[in-house]
Specification:
This protein starts with 9 loop residues before the first strand and ends in an 8-residue tail after the last helix. It has seven helices and 18 strands. The chain is α+β, with helices and mostly antiparallel strands. The strands form four sheets. The protein has a seven-stranded antiparallel β-sheet with strand order 3-4-5-9-8-7-6, sandwiched between helices. The protein has a seven-stranded antiparallel β-sheet with strand order 12-13-14-18-17-16-15. Bound molecules: zinc ion (2 copies). The site of one zinc ion (ZN) has 7 residues, from loops.
Length: 303
């Protein structure tokens, strides 16, 4: 049955190890929590279209309990609507063999197709609710859930939002997301090591009258001043780029033990996208091959 899901453009979305494909016009509108428990919402220009929730340390027995909770929540929300509602269970939204699950549909003023599942691999209880505002809601929900993955794979966590896709080693946890218009700055931590992934829009305007190296120095300011660093011009994927590597100055190490004394970064300007990218790694010592591997996972114009 044609359902429109094959013709409209889709894009990847990834947040805290949750990965799936969504219609292109849905984008991140809310995020809270961490890898253990959290929630994200994606919206289009009119409404929330996808809600994803996860909770660590769950069990398969927790699925019916979580389902009741979510349905009760939806009923509360929809009961405020004058048009009433109808909840249908066991909608066979997916046919997962590896994850115990229960799906439901809720029809009122709008239609919500949802599912609660338990992943034996990561022991998380998760919930997804999809509301398209269109008649083919179940088909869109199925397409979203088709390739859904809820835990890191191959030792890496892939993040993908606002058309910005990158991976970081699984052991790193998100410490600070800064999502400003024109600048996405994600900071991840594992013990004393930090990874920063930055994307800045309107590169042409940002670099008017300044070189890439000058911009980089200004962007980090004090954060790289403590390092005896070398910044060299280079190429990355054919783009104008710079590489920066250095160690913290001895007199700055002072009495603070186990600070990231080593820093390495690559920054480049993608003219095709008119964006600037930085991948920076700070640690006690060089991350060796991991730097190259994960710097290479920050996608720009070509995917
Ligand atoms: Zn999982
Ligand atoms: Zn590029």
């Amino acid at each position: 049955m044609p359902d429109g899901t094959a013709t409209q453009p889709w894009q990847p979305f990834g947040w805290q190890a949750m990965r799936l494909e969504v219609p292109e016009e849905w984008s991140l509108s809310h995020a809270e929590g961490d890898g253990k428990s959290g929630i994200v919402r994606l919206s289009d220009s009119r409404d929330v279209r996808l809600t994803l929730q996860w909770q660590a340390n769950g069990s398969a027995d927790g699925v019916p309990v979580a389902l009741e909770k979510h349905i009760a929540q939806i009923k509360r929300e929809i009961s405020r609507s004058p048009s009433g509602w109808q909840v249908k269970r066991e909608t066979n939204l997916v046919n997962w063999r590896d994850r115990p699950h229960e799906s439901y549909a809720c029809r009122g003023e709008s239609e919500v197709n949802g599912i609660v599942w338990f992943c034996p691999a990561c022991k998380r209880i998760c919930h997804a609710a999809i509301s398209t505002g269109a008649e083919d809601g179940a088909a869109v929900a199925r397409r979203c859930l088709k390739g859904l993955c809820d835990h890191p794979t191959d030792g890496a966590t892939t993040w993908s939002f606002y058309g910005h896709t990158f991976s970081i080693p699984e052991r790193f946890r998100l410490e600070r997301p800064t999502l400003r218009t024109g600048c996405l700055e994600m900071v991840f931590r594992h013990r004393e090591s930090l990874i920063e992934v930055v994307r800045v829009s309107l590169a042409e305007e940002v670099l008017r009258g300044v070189t890439l190296i000058e911009w980089f120095k200004t962007f980090y300011g004090r954060r790289i001043e403590d390092f005896r660093r070398e910044i060299t011009e280079s190429k990355h994927r054919g783009h104008e780029a710079l590489e920066c590597e250095g160690e913290m100055l001895w007199h700055r190490r002072a009495s603070v033990l186990f600070r990231p004394y080593y820093m390495r970064a690559i920054a480049w300007r993608c003219s095709e996208e008119d964006k600037l990218y930085i991948f920076r790694w700070s640690a006690i010592k060089s991350p060796a091959n991991e730097f190259e591997k994960f710097a290479g996972k920050v996608q720009c114009h070509e995917t």
